[in-house]
């Protein structure tokens, strides 16, 4: 088999595995809720419950909460890769994949590619819900797309960490528990829903060190000013660093399990 044919097989096998994982998302209520129901529910609930108390009204609160809910949804969607990989390993389906004439890396690559599509759905749902509620970014549609792509890239980079956790953890319950705690801490100890200055001094220090704070700040700046800021550069560098570190570790752990 020549190199071009081998690459073609890897691409086709990866696409098949990605399609399989997307079907699992559609038919699994928990996975489907992460990318479609959760952003709608949280946007409506947080907006109408806390908008008046925090910003004086829902319309004034939307520029704050839309990026916050968007990144919270990215965290939730990215964390799903770890539990799904662990469930597949525990069920023995990866062992069956090894007996098929397919590329060895295709199941892992398909999972990570499917994650990017799930993140895209979650992004569109989050932003569309904010728009229906009255959110109108000052920067225009082009910067909405750019900020959405930055959020998707951030979520995809984080999915490598959760995928590694799924490969190393003993069971899916451990992965789900860790993912939930991580999502809650990173989301709520940040500027996602409230101004950092309203927090106690020790919490302000933690929130300012939280990488999620920088991602949300970058997206808010882009949507407000229509410019690529230093915060956006920092987020891009940070996400690239995560991929460079955790992608090889994830592939190593995958090869060890298979």
Question: How would you describe this structure to a colleague?
Answer:
- This protein has helices at 3-27, 29-55, 58-91, 93-98, 106-132, 141-168, 172-188, 201-209, 211-225, 230-257.
- It is elongated.
- The two termini are 23 Å apart.
- The protein has one domain (3-257).
- The protein is 84% helix and 0% strand.
- It contains ten helices and no strands.
- The protein has 258 residues and is an all-alpha fold.
> Helix count?
10
| SS-derived structural category | mainly alpha
Shape: elongated
Strand composition percent? under 5%
**Quick check: average pLDDT?**
86
Q: How far do the termini sit from each other?
A: 23 Å
Count all strands and give the number. Answer: 0
Describe the structure using short key phrases.
disordered N terminus, mainly alpha, elongated, about 260 residues
Question: Quick summary of this structure?
Answer:
The protein contains ten helices and no strands.
Topology of this protein?
Layout lengths: L2 H25 L1 H27 L2 H34 L1 H6 L7 H27 L8 H28 L3 H17 L12 H9 L1 H15 L4 H28 L1
